[in-house]
Amino acid sequence: MHSEIYHLSEQLGRALWQKSAKVTSAESCTGGGVAQAITAVAGSSAWFERSFVTYANRAKQEMLGVDAALLEEHGAVSEPVVISMVKGAARFADADYAVAISGIAGPDGGSEDKPVGTVWFAWRSPNGVVARKYLLSGDRHAVREQAVKISLQELLHQVTGCNTV
Predict the structure, then answer these.
(1) What does pTM read for this prediction?
(2) Residue 72: which CATH number?
C-alpha cells in the first residue's frame, strides 16, 4: 500500500477514535480499496465494522437500496447514484461517516459524456452529504489509487474540519 494512503488512514482512524465515530464505504470502481486502506491500520475495528463492494448495478440495488430507476436514468457513474449509495451505506452500516465511489477506471467503458477516469464521489457526515466529480488520469491502477486517496482525504476533512492537502 502506498505510504501516503496508509498515513491518511492512520490520521482518519485517530480522528474517528477520538470522536467515538464509525466509518463505512460503498465502493464500485475501487473494488474495496478504501476498506483495505482503513483496515490496514491496527485497531481499525474500533471505527470500522463493514463496507460494501457494489461493482454491479444489481449489488447497488440489493445492498445499498439504490433505486433501479435512478440507475436507468443517470447511470451508475453519476451524482444521484453516489448520493444514494452513500446514504444507503451509512444507514446499513450504522456509520457516522461514509464515502461512496463510482467511476470508470478503464481502459474500456468510457464514453464522450463519461470518459475513462470519470469518478463520482459522495461523502456523508453528520452535517449532510457532499458529492463531487473528478476526471482522473493514468491507467486503471492509477485511477483507482487516486480515487482511494481522494476518498480518505475528504473523509478526514469531514471528520476533523481541516483540509489535508
Answers:
(1) 0.96
(2) 3.90.950.20
